Amino acid sequence: MNVTLAVKQYVTRMIEDSGPGMKVLLMDKDTTSIVSMVYTQSEILQKEVYLLERIDSQNRDNMKHLKAICYLRPTKENVESLIQELRRPKYSVYFIYFSNVISKSEIKALAEADEQEVVAEIQEFYGDFIAVNPHLFSLNLQGVARGRSWDPTMLARSTQGLTSVLLALKKCPVIRYQLSSDMAKRLAESVKLIITKEYELFDFRKTEVPPLLLILDRSDDAITPLLNQWTYQAMVHELLGLNNNRIDLSRVPGISKDLREVVLSADNDDFYANNLYLNFGEIGTNIKNLMEDFQKKKPKGQQRLESISDMKAFVDSYPQFKKMSGAVSKHVTVVGELSRLVAERQLMEVSEVEQELACQNDHSSAQQKVRRLLRLPGVCELDAVRLVMLYALRYERHSNSALPAMMEELAKRGVSEKYRKMVHSVVEYGGKRVRGSDLVTATDAVAITKQFLKGLKGVENVYTQHQPLLQDTLDQLVKGKLRDAQFPYLGASSLRDRPQDVLVFVVGGATYEEALCVYNLNRSVPGVRIVLGGTTVHIHTTVLTTVHTTVHSTVHSTKRY
Amino acid sequence: MASSYPPPFEGTGEVKEGFICPLCHKDLQSFYQLQDHYEEEHSGDDRHVRGQLKSLVQKAKKAKDKLLKRDGDDRADTGSYESFYYGGVDPYMWEPQELGATRNHQDYFKKHRAARIDHYVIEVNKLLIRLEKLTSFDRTNSDVAKIRAIEKSVVPWVSDSDVPFCPDCGNKFNIRNRRHHCRLCGSIMCRKCMDFVPLPLAYKLTSGTRESLCIPGSPGQSQAPPSGAGASGMGSRRGSLSSLSSVTSMLEEKDDEKIRCCHHCMDTLLKRQQKLEERDHMPDIVKLYERLRMCMDKVDEKAPEYIKVAESLNAGETTYNLDSAGGLRLEVQKYYELIDALSKRILTLGMKDDPAPTPKSLHLQKMIRYTATLFVQEKLLGLMSLPTKDKYEALKEKRKQEQEKKLQQERLAAQESMRKRQESEKNRSVATTNGEVPPAPKPPRMTKAGGWLPSADSKKTHSELKDPLLQQIDNIQSFLRQAREAQRTDEVAMLEENLRQLQDEYDQQQTSLAIALSQKLAQEENLQQGEIQRLEARERSEWEQRAPAADSRQPSSIWECSLDLGEPVAGYVEEDKIGEVTPKFERSPLSLRAFPALAGQEESPPRLRSLGGHVTPPSSEGPNSSSLNPFEEDSTPTEEDPSNPFFEDIQEEHKEVSNGKKEYNPFDDEEDNGGQEEPAATSLGNPFEEESSETSNPFTEASGDSPGVSTNPFEGDEDAGALADIDMIEEELLLQQIDNIRAYIFDAKINGRLDEVELLSANLRELQHTLQEQKKTH
């Protein structure tokens, strides 16, 4: 059930299949991201892969002493490029792997292009998704919806991605979907269709309890992606932006040359791996420990090198020391930049109000606090809009709504028209009307008591009070209590026992908060393994894009018809 | 003991061996103690055999489980995550999974390709045959009409009226845009879409079919293209195709030196030509790369072996010989030098060639170099240093003392228990009035032990061993010895594993036996014998075996007797070692080969030197330098920078060392003869003497052993600027080197060696200079 490992094993197998010798890895844009998430450069170098090339790059030289490993999505363009490549092979031998199902006719076309008999291997390796963490994957798709229904190409891509996850993990699941969402249903059907069509591929060893695929829709919980997150992973993504495991730090004031771009990968960076899911405060402490540890090992000038054994220890540990100093300076820089941004954007205060909006039920205090923050100059445009959005979602039908006043404040602040319109779009996207389950106010007795108890106990951390809706859904799911009425099974088969292996897919994108929640569930519930996926993994800007494309094209489509 | 026998259940906790009570897991030094302990402590417990068996079975099951889950556990241990938490599992810790689903299209692909290839081959051959016909007559001296006739006879021309438009570009044919026929397939195209096969190319292509003499690859390549502008660059570059056709179109119908053809035929011919060219061509980079990989494989093979040996030596064990370890280290380091040199050559490959290598191949070369650097850095790091001779002696002594202490304790305890046993036995024998039982097991044990000693290694014992397990253990031990002698480390490891398992099993068997038969004294002697033999069988616990034998002597003579025992043991080890070492050195007498003349001079007084050296540990520079050095001499002589004073210094040292090294062989021989008479300690001490002083001089030690040094990466930089364009990697290494040298300077200062300080600081300045220069060039 480890998606990172699944992709890594695929790539490793590819490389190993090609035998010894110098190699080049030919990829397309998507597979480049896929591979770079699981392999670092030095790792892949050790496997004799010295060049990484794009199949569509024009300036590749003839290098007949190299073996080519092609890892490509089976798109028309890729197949066409590959045909051209085979007609005039630049490398001695080709090992071709497609990341998904490829049609017989395309294979035939390739076979006919291979006049020089350079193809040694042609296979399907189903790593057609981006493995972010062992339990989190993404398809990196933006704007999958046209109105409330799928963009057809996006549906096809999502189906491919999701089926490839199933194949990579060797799971032939029972499917459940969120009834309130048409898109979830369409995707479920589409996946089912593929499973039926490619029944030979999905013929895996039967387990006692069949795996479960649960397809949800983002619009059911529009609040979660609007909240600020405080885990290391989420903050790095949200505030710095992680692209193929790399952070661009060039805009950090006074950054040194070798820290302009740093790699953050849980695979090779222990500190990152251990602090992925810790919150900002804990990371601060850990950074301090790391520094102290480092300082202990670091010889302070020459005073420390008093004895010969000191010397020897220093020389012996020098490379380790160097590696460690690299890690320390990297994380110190990253965390330093994060805290600079947090202070600059007054994120602590913003987050506190956000959490209050999301978790508590005190309208007057909430609206006062929001309006106070709206008047603060430090709060940036995006954060201000997010606050208003949260307020609008939370107190959508409150009799005494302060929304118009807030909108005015936004206008006064000079927030752009586009953003102000987004407030209404968000309500349209994820308001009460579309929600299948009740997001904010608890309805059943159990939930009410829970909330009450929570209020009594007080909150441990005001910045992390919020629990995503997914938490509840999955809680019920693993207890076998998720209602069939809300999340029906597709087809006749249903699960009688509690599920063991669960794959959750969120149409419209998952969030890092949900990833954390799934991570904790995995660690706390014995015998259950949950993998979370989404068309993308959201940060604030992407969720606004999603909202925009969904709602905006709704207007269009209604106009058209 | 632990390091040479890695415990079978790695990571699952300490594995106890020896006499462990099956009920309370208390370690009781000897069989008797165990028995006593058992009788005293657990006599009240359930003695029922079935109960005992049950617990044993459970234990076996547990062990099995452990073994099966080993992989998973190992993962959990290596990861730094908390693997279990509230009962759930961290996703990072999910058990390993098999490779995801795959689907192979190979067969389908091949089927279609085969059909296509047949077609293609026929096409190519057809073209070649036609080309041959077209070039087989004397074109220059025939008139146009005749040529035309021949050409038409080779392939039927498509009639003009059938083709109103150029099939390639679609332009209409008219008087200005005339039709042209491809001489190879007969089709029609316009002038723009037309190509020419230059005659040299045609000859080259058809040479294969013509069976003519001289064409394998190179002459064809060097053949100068014909003077005609159109054919220039026809050789292999595809890019020139378009320009070619545009230029040739200017030359009107001059078909003397070329054969008119269409794009498609030209394409096919060019591909064919390219294939011919590439067939036998192996670029330099491939050759170098293959050698590089070979060295890396060797390192992968040898380094773990060395690490194992070094670990054992550093723990003061006598399993391995310090000399052979030094040799191994030398060998591994030689490979590092080679890797470095080879990768550097790859990096600079083609730099000076006229058409500079393409950026991609430069990138490739850079990446290979980078990988090699990473490899060396990473692997050298794990290459721990060997203990010096003195240190090794100290370690051994320490270990010996520890064992001694343990032994004494055991002995005391054994005597104690013995006394108790005798009492209890007497009591019991009285009680049971069993006259047959020998009341005192002392005499038989004595004889047993005495009888055993000399034949410890002989095969006679085999027949005596009733237990198949024991026989097996014995067999494996002899295999193990042979394997060690043959230096097959992997087999040794495997055998050791086997041996341990067998011994475990035997232990268990014995324990269960002991429990089941604890009341039957008649059986006791068998058991004793078994235990003693088992102990005897373990090479390294040789001391323990003597415990029962020695305990009959007076306590006051304990020290004396242990010395007595020490002699044969050491002698035995020594024999083993020498067998191991000498072939090794004969096989790789690198230092000898490097300086035959010098070595010859030194050969005469080896004994003197060795003796003197033994008495007063040398502190002079010469023999001090580490074992690594001789290598730099012979593996990379050209790499060295003579202008570097530091290097010269080292070189001098090397010379001396390699002379010193020479002493090993004669000395070993000496020992072989004299070893029996001499006290064991000295005989063991001597061979290591050279190495021992190695680290007493920290300066040279550092220069030899520190990983960062692998000095060579930087020499390249120093000696040239030839590699002026070298990338960041080199710069980083340079920085590292500077840091290292600073460290050495500091060290030298502390030791008050001012001359070295001077040398080093000169060196440092030079490095810094290089670094600055390099920075400038960036």
TrEMBL record, chain A:
Family matches, as SUPFAM superfamilies: Sec1/munc18-like (SM) proteins (SSF56815)
GO BP, sorted A to Z: protein transport; vesicle-mediated transport
TM region(s), chain numbering: none
InterPro entries: Sec-1-like_dom1, Sec-1-like_dom3a, Sec1-like, Sec1-like_dom2, Sec1-like_sf
One annotated Gene Ontology cellular component of this protein: endomembrane system
Top-rank taxon, per record: Eukaryota
Listed name of the protein: Vacuolar protein sorting 45 homolog
Chain's gene name: vps45
TrEMBL record, chain B:
Molecular function terms from GO: zinc ion binding
Domain C2H2-type: 19-47
Keywords: Metal-binding, Zinc, Zinc-finger
Biased composition (Basic and acidic residues): 397-409, 417-428, 652-665
Amino-acid biosynthesis listed as a keyword: no
Low complexity compositional bias, start-end: 216-246
Biased composition (Polar residues): 617-629
Keyword Metal-binding: yes
Start and end residues of each FYVE-type domain: 160-270
Protein name: Rabenosyn-5
Species per Swiss-Prot/TrEMBL record: Gadus morhua (Atlantic cod)
Gene that encodes the chain: rbsn
